[in-house]
Amino acid sequence: MKKSDFYYDLPDALIAQQPLAERSASRLLCLDKDSDAIYDRQFVDFLDLLNVEDLLVFNNTKVIPARLFGHKQSGGKVEILIERVLNDREVLAHMRSSKSPKAGALIDLDAGFQCTVVGREEDLFHLRFNGEQSLVDILENIGHMPLPPYIERADDENDQTRYQTVFAAQSGAVAAPTAGLHFDEAMMTRIKEKGVRITFVTLHVASGTFRPVKVDNLADHIMHKEYFSVPEETVLAVQQAKARGGRVIAVGTTAMRSLESASQAGSLEACQGDTNLFITPGYVFKTVDAMLTNFHLPESTLLMLVSAFSGYKRIKKVYQHAVVQQYRFFSYGDAMFIQRTE
């Protein structure tokens, strides 16, 4: 298939610029697996769609305040977006400035902090932070939440909590696993009280998730890499769910990519490392049976993934319905529940 096959027309007014007052106040579009009927519901109804035998798999990554501002010694302004943390002092990052700084250049950051350009790794800058404070402390002091490019405003104090899931635990993401943003503590409690099991994977969402596909032939697209981890307890939870006849439900495309990346040998295995798994129509899913996900950008790899999961024509119909019914799109938008096409 071609990139252009995944285009759809989206009015700018439907791109959510702010989170709703309550996490669970979003709408929920449901696609019936057997009849292809589309139902418009509320996210609080999600619990009704779960069976006690099911397993929910969440991504417990934690978004770091990865956007920094400063200036070069010459005075030129610099904006830094951390892509990957290498250690307690060094990162790989995107850098926006009038002229790219060279190796050895010093960057003065807000509040008197400073970093040095070590070098380049392709389109990323290798930076080392100076001084005695740790990277975590520096980011807590001067870092900004890395809102996606389609949110056309500066981050504010509300984003520090709302662009973060309530179960975030493992620091390293520079974008939120957005399907998880709909869950508040009350919903998590209700899920457990119903007897539905939950488990976690980690995938540190990189800024490449927003990178446009630049080639029309999907076979020529080079997928970005992201760190993921599937622990042994998650593998056991999946095996137990399958044994009792339950569904493995991925909460978001990142949980999906983690589980499927760890299933490339044919069945799910505990593992960790980098994944560049690119899921397009024709991919044979090995572990996931259903998923909760937000609405994704036109011609994006995430739209291609959900089209592979539930069928290209079905997802195209779903998105047309969502636009007509004025669902809210992207990170702070509404959700949909879909199941795997056999």
Structure description:
This protein has 2 domains: 3-63 and 160-339, QueA-like (3-Layer(aba) Sandwich); 67-142, QueA-like (Thrombin, subunit H, Beta Barrel), CATH 2.40.10.240. Helices cover 19% and strands 27% of the residues. With 342 residues, the chain is an alpha/beta fold. The strands form 3 sheets. A 9-stranded mixed beta sheet has the order 2-1-17-16-14-3-12-13-15, covered by helices on one side. Strand 9 and strand 10 form a beta hairpin. Helix 6 (301-310) crosses helix 7. The longest helix has 13 residues, at 312-324.
Encode the helix/strand succession as letters: EEEEEEEEEEHHEHEEHEHEEHHE
The percent range for helix content is 10-25%
| Cα-to-Cα separation, first versus last residue | 20 Å
Sequence of strands across the biggest β-sheet: 2-1-17-16-14-3-12-13-15
Uncertain residue segments: none
Strand residue content? 25-35%
Whole-angstrom Rg? 20 Å
Number of helices: 7
- CATH level 1 name of the largest domain: Alpha Beta
Provide the residue-averaged pLDDT: 96
The CATH architecture assignment of the largest domain turns out to be 3-Layer(aba) Sandwich
* Strand elements, count: 17
Count of distinct structural domains: 2
CATH fold name of the largest domain:
QueA-like
**Secondary structure category:** alpha/beta
Overall 3D shape: globular
CATH superfamily of the largest domain: QueA-like
